[in-house]
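Researcher: Let's try something more involved. This one mixes different molecule types, so please make sure each is placed in the same coordinate frame as the others.
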Amino acid sequence: MYNFIYHRAAGLRQAQHMLGEFDDAKLIAGGQSLLPMMKLRLAAPANLVDLGKIAGLSDIEPDVRSISIGAMATHFEVHNSAVVQEALPALAELAGMIGEPAVRHRGTLGGSIAHNDPTADYPAACLALGATIITTERRIPADAFFTGLFETALMPDEIITAVSFPLAEKAAYQKFRNPASRYAMVGVFVAKHASDVRVAITGAGASGVFRVPAFEEALQGRFSPEALEGLTVSADGLTGDLHASAPYRAHLIGVLARRAVAAANERNDRSDEL
Amino acid sequence: MPTVSLTVNGNPVHADIDPRTLLVQLLRENLRLTGTRVGCDTSQCGSCVVHMDGKAVKSCTVLTLQAEGTAITTIEGLALGETLHPMQQAFRDNHGLQCGFCTSGMIMTAVDMVRRKGHALDDHTIRRELEGNLCRCTGYHNIVKSIAAGARAMESADPLRRAAE
Ligand SMILES: Cc1cc2nc3c(=O)[nH]c(=O)nc-3n(C[C@H](O)[C@H](O)[C@H](O)COP(=O)(O)OP(=O)(O)OC[C@H]3O[C@@H](n4cnc5c(N)ncnc54)[C@H](O)[C@@H]3O)c2cc1C
Ligand code: FES
Ligand code: FES
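Model: All components are placed in one shared frame. Result:
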């Protein structure tokens, strides 16, 4: 790891000021992606601005049709939040599938989406739920936020403060883990909203998370796994590596999308019975 | 050099450190608490797991400066005097270790697991919860057995010990 100057921000304003003031400054949240990158010297910021001691950045607040989750909420906190479990159980489940317990105790929502690893889980939830990313500057729709591999619409001095997730009528996430890293080899998040259905895929896209319009249309007609029978995703533009070829990933997308729809329906049937 | 203040196993620690100092380096190199291991240094193996404000974290993936003001517990902080923690005793009784390199991380992870998941842990739960801990010797079978036994033993541990947790 190359050396850096460490700054502990006491508030958001100060963090913003530090980002603007210092050369080559980078935020650190949970450090679960950034520190491994710094050890490998893939990242070598001259200044590190720590968000860890800023109060109020990890609040989870229910609204009428959405939940707002603070950028510094850890995966553990989201997974265990009664509010999220009640209003968006698919999101609580997803948070509990990230990495393993120790990583979930440190890693944050804001850090995960700012990093935008093509195999990360949260980007799929943001895209399928039609989330809004709230920053110190503006509100960015998820559709415009994830711009490529490890790339987002964030500007250098911009800080994510929260993400607002609209509630869905039905939703579920299915993850096929890479057996070694436990990241998603393919992850599929489906969400049925009042006016549309959204299907987002992580782990597979050569340029990151993406939606599948053909699946969405079919599911809008009928929200059932059968509606996806016979529909496939082209392997063009998908990742192929030593873990799985592009055609295999394309196949997994279909399988996991059907499973996700079935899981979303099943959850609703269960809660109707209660 | 920046300074850091935190508590380790109940003792206040103040140190001047290089900002790059990982929490595990502070523990092992400054404080000589070498029970916490570095198996991979790439956040994979879990041999460096300690508790930070009561939660398991990989101390190779936390900057010491991020731990300012926190309370850290390491494997050295589990026993009460000469009496092993029930989870340590369970690993001993169930042959839950061979070379022992992964053991402190396993035990710290196990104690955290019991706090979150309770005292009746089935094999499936234990194996899932151990996703971040690697053992190159035991084949996990006796580790899983140890954790199930240790979890039960923690329930009936003396009230003094439970109050301390
Ligand atoms: C062993 C292991 C397994 C993992 N498995 C998974 C997995 O299965 N699925 C998965 O999705 N992830 C996984 N992760 C990654 C983990 O979820 C990270 O926590 C997450 O990617 C980054 O969050 P962080 O808070 O640690 O961010 P950091 O590492 O602190 O920061 C990451 C990046 O985000 C920027 N950043 C942080 N916060 C903000 C903010 N508020 N505003 C703007 N920019 C910000 C930083 O500058 C940095 O560039 C794993 C990590 C490890 C170590
Ligand atoms: S040394 Fe920290 S996870 Fe391996
Ligand atoms: S006992 Fe040797 S690595 Fe686990």
